[in-house]
Task: inverse folding
């Protein structure tokens, strides 16, 4: 079974600064998908960024980027130019590859509460 | 596109009663839907995988007789909490995967969640 670990229960950053959220995972699979989700107070899960394990290039979505280190099983999220709207719980998630027999559910880390200081 | 709805958004029930929660994919067909539970200030835990036209697959530790899942159509899955007790109070979130996958990531789209309070 796969496990996802987020070691930072809470992080705080000044508005406009950069913050990095850490995530490590454990798996015996060679191909898989990794995700970062944002959960604001509304509780709606919002996909922030995703990465496929066989792609060496780190994913980037505007102010959000990841540092994917496959050998170290590390998948950190960097948020640049932090904005007040970035305040939320951030969850790192793992999913096995689509096998054709049906999709697999996500395994989530415990989350990091991100606070943006104005 | 790719909108998933849940109904109700909030329900309060008495201990011992049953509650049904609906999850609908509004603009796509979903062969597979997932049900997650989230306790306050905790992460999402996968409860079960719901496949259209077949029995749900439950994660270890989840009582299948207590959490009944039905996926009768490609756009609707229901979760029924039977004989609910206060410890079942939680936030229940569904997600749906489009039939045939959604690109290489086979993305899951999440519903807004249902808050269940059992008195």
Result:
């Amino acid at each position: 079974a796969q496990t996802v670990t987020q070691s930072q229960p809470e992080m705080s950053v000044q508005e406009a600064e950069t913050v990095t959220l850490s995530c490590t995972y454990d798996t015996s699979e060679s191909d898989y998908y990794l995700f970062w989700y944002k959960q604001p107070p509304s509780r709606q899960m919002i996909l922030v960024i995703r990465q496929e394990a066989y792609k060496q290039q780190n994913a980037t979505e505007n102010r959000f980027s990841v540092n994917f280190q496959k050998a170290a099983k590390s998948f950190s999220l960097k948020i640049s130019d932090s904005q007040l709207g970035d305040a939320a719980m951030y969850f790192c998630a793992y999913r096995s590859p689509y096998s054709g027999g049906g999709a697999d559910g996500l395994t989530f880390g415990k989350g990091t509460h991100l606070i943006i200081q104005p | 596109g790719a909108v998933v709805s849940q109904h109700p958004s909030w329900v309060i029930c008495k201990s011992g009663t049953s509650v049904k929660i609906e999850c609908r994919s509004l603009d796509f067909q979903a062969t597979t839907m997932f049900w997650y539970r989230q306790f306050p200030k905790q992460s999402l835990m996968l409860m079960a995988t719901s496949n259209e036209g077949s029995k749900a697959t439950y994660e270890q530790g989840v009582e299948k007789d207590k959490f009944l899942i039905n996926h009768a159509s490609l756009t609707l899955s229901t979760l029924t909490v039977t004989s609910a007790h206060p410890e079942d109070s939680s936030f229940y979130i569904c997600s749906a995967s489009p039939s045939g996958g959604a690109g290489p990531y086979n993305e899951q789209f999440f519903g807004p969640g249902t808050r269940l309070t059992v008195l």
Remarks:
- Chain B has no helices and eleven strands.
- Chain B has a mean pLDDT of 91.
- Chain B touches chain A at residues 31-32, 34, 36, 38, 42-46, 49, 51, 59, 91, 93, 95, 97, 101, 104-108, 110, 112-113 (CB under 8 Å).
- The first strand of chain B starts at residue 4 and ends at 7.
